[in-house]
Amino acid sequence: MDTTHIASLRSLAKKRDVLIGAAANWRALRTDYAYREVLAQEFDLLTTENELKFGPLSPRPNAYDFGPAEELVDFAQANDMKIRGHTLLWHKMNPDWLTENNFTRHQALELLHKHIFTVMAYFRGEVYAWDVVNEPIHDNGGLRDSFWLHTIGPDYIEYAFRWANQADPNARLFINDYGTEDLGTKSDSLYNLVKDLLRRGTPINGVGLQMHLSIADSQDFVKPPTVQDLEENLRRFADLGLEIHITEMDVQIQNLSGSMEEQLERQARVYEDVLTVALRNPQLKAFVLWGFTDRYSWIPKATGRPDAPLPFDEYYQPKPAYEALYRALQAA
Ligand code: XIL
């Protein structure tokens, strides 16, 4: 580590009363000492990258394996980090036994109830915030198809929040999505959805904006929002009384032209702009990266191309993006 960094990101974030986090996975935590060191040193919030998704958690009906998630929770607690539980409901990474059976609406509601209570009760008091519903909005603005939507109907979302609140009344409950960072159809839909949920008295505490960004063209990924759009979007969610978490930030540089140095500088600017704008909003309570080292980023696998989307390189050296986050926190 560069010795000019006398502080860590987490110590700077603490002064601003915001949590700074990273998604972490069990495999890396188990096998990589440097990974554990940097994670605990720089971050005070840990999101479970895959270990609490329904499929990995319950590959067979009526059986849950909490082992890997527990190891992440234990690590976080040992290092005085809070936990973001990701995620109770999603359209992806569900167990085959769930999606390949023809459950009725009634059965699906029972399964939903059981899943939420089983998982949240197990970690009651240990998980600070849950992504109760992940990626519920389709890119066209409608509700996204999923096992839950087509078996239960649109009210699966409200059921999920109400049961989550019963299962752990102290947990902060979030709805989380991507492509909802700027102003536009998708983000309007998310806004209208949460506004409606609130109007109906649904216990929802906050909105998670994933912030998976790509600077150059990459089909399925979101362009960095303009500073103005982001600011206004955060303001309207905050005005509803909701907390805001940036939940999964990474910034792809694949397909960019220019030297590696220039690419990394551009990437750093995106990180700095997003964190700076987010910190201006008093409802911003957590800022989370999707990983922290390029060594284990999901992006190369997801896009099929090499990339370097995170603030630490493969050898745990801080990149310009790290300096950018550091500066943004210092300035806040
Ligand atoms: C990703 C993980 O990082 C990968 O390891 C896994 O193969 C697929 O899921 N949005 C989300 C996360 O909400 O759960 C996804 O995580 C990345 C996109």
UniProtKB/TrEMBL annotation:
Task: Say which enzyme class the record assigns.
Answer: hydrolase
Residue ranges constituting the GH10 domain according to the UniProt record: 3-328
Record-level GO BP terms:
xylan catabolic process
Q: Which EC numbers characterise this protein's activity in its record?
A: 3.2.1.8
The UniProt entry, under PROSITE patterns, shows: GH10_2
User: What keyword terms does UniProt attach to this protein?
Assistant: Carbohydrate metabolism, Glycosidase, Hydrolase, Polysaccharide degradation, Signal, Xylan degradation
Name by which UniProt lists this protein: endo-1,4-beta-xylanase
- What Pfam families does the database record attribute to this sequence? Glyco_hydro_10 (PF00331)
SMART domains attached here? Glyco_10
Under catalytic activity, the entry for this protein gives:
Endohydrolysis of (1->4)-beta-D-xylosidic linkages in xylans
Does this entry carry the keyword Calcium?
no
Keyword check for Disulfide bond: no
Family per record? Belongs to the glycosyl hydrolase 10 (cellulase F) family.
| InterPro entries for this protein | GH (IPR017853), GH10 (IPR044846), GH10_dom (IPR001000)
Gene Ontology MF terms: endo-1,4-beta-xylanase activity
